Amino acid sequence: MAKLALSSFIFSLLLLCFFSGTLQITPICLVNFLSFLQVMLIIVTAFMRGKWCVAKPTTSDEILQKNIELACTHVDCRRLVNAGGDCFKPATLLNIASVTMNLYYQASGKALTSCDFWGTGLLVVTDPSYETCKYEYHH
Fold first, then answer.
1. Tally of CB atoms within 10 A around 138
2. How many whole angstroms separate alpha carbon 75 and alpha carbon 27?
3. Is residue 72 over pLDDT 90?
4. Average pLDDT, whole number, for the chain?
5. What is d(CA 111, CA 51) in angstroms, rounded to the nearest whole number?
6. Hey, is 54 helix, strand or coil?
7. What is the pTM of this model?
8. Of the spans 9-18, 42-51, 104-113, which averages the highest pLDDT?
9. Is 22 helix (H, G, I), strand (E, B) or coil?
10. Rounded CA gap, 7 and 97, in Å?
11. Higher pLDDT, 33 or 64
């Protein structure tokens, strides 16, 4: 259904732009239409790429700790963030919060509200994994 709606929209745009009375393709309409397609491609690509949830770098230590506690009451964080875990280093609240927040977000089916964390969650499309720390990702 969504494909049909998008196809209809593009067809309508083409009709309005290219054939507006004179049945000629005008350069301005062509540029506008190509710009539209470029924006649509960026949007579609962003939605098709992976998404991970991380903590905003400006988040206070107090809220980061709350985020860790919330996430770890719903998912098992121990294997990643306990001493010796794959994501323990760097042992900063920001790093540990990001890893645990992402675990919770992925386990919750990647619902937008699952990355809110009092407004301190940030969805990213670039995999934040590093060295031995692999951020979980569910398709």
1. 10
2. 55
3. yes
4. 82
5. 11
6. strand
7. 0.67
8. 104-113
9. coil
10. 42
11. 64
Burial class of residue 118, CB neighbours in 10 A (0-12, 13-18, 19+):
exposed
21: which 2 tokens?
Answer: 């009375």
Virtual torsion, Cα 7, 12, 17, 18, nearest 10 deg:
80
**Type of residue at 130:** Y
pLDDT tens digits for 77-106?
Answer: 888 888 888 898 898 999 999 999 999 999
Cα 100 to Cα 139: distance, rounded to the nearest angstrom: 18
Mean pLDDT of 45-71: 88
The Cα–Cα gap between 136 and 85 comes to 14
Token representation of residue 33: 């239409």
- Measured CA distances, 112 to 35, 36, 126 (Å): 28, 26, 17
DSSP letters for 75-137: S--HHHHSTTSTT-SS--HHHHHHHHHHHHHHHTTS-GGGG-TTTTEEEESS---BTTB----
- Encoded tokens for 86: 């794959």
